[in-house]
Amino acid sequence: MLNPGDHIFSIRAGILYYHHGIYVGDDMVIHLMAAGMKKSSSSLCPKCGYNRDRDSRIVKTCLDCFLDGNSLHIFEYGMPCK
Ligand SMILES: [Zn+2]
Q: In which domain of life is the source organism classified (predicted)?
């Protein structure tokens, strides 16, 4: 379904935030995790080892961490970008 280099995003329900990333293959995504998006859980992801409590920075995580339970969309050029 996804190809390396695909521009993907998820819509964070409730706060109307579009979370963008670039799929790099092997179920991994490079994206910017913003501070303030922390969840109460401090556990490391068993799949990619990502600690979701870390501060804002560009990270490479698995697709599950990128989506964080939200829906996956593939960015089509020409769409409005927030
Ligand atoms: Zn992960």
A: Eukaryota
Provide the 10 A C-beta neighbour count for residue 66. Answer: 26
- Total domains in the fold of the chain: 1
**Ion ligand 1 neighbours, Cβ < 5 Å:** 45, 47-48, 50, 61-62, 65
**Domain of 55, in residue numbers:** 7-74
Q: How far is the CA of 31 from the centre of ligand 1 (A)?
A: 12
Domain-located, residue 66: yes
C-alpha of residue 67 to centroid of ligand 1, in Å? 9
* CA dist., res. 38 & res. 19, Å (int): 14
Whether 15 maps to a domain, the answer reads: yes
pLDDT at 79: 60
**Contact between 11 and 73 (Cβ < 8 Å):** yes
Distance from the CA of 66 to the center of ligand 1, in angstroms?
A: 7
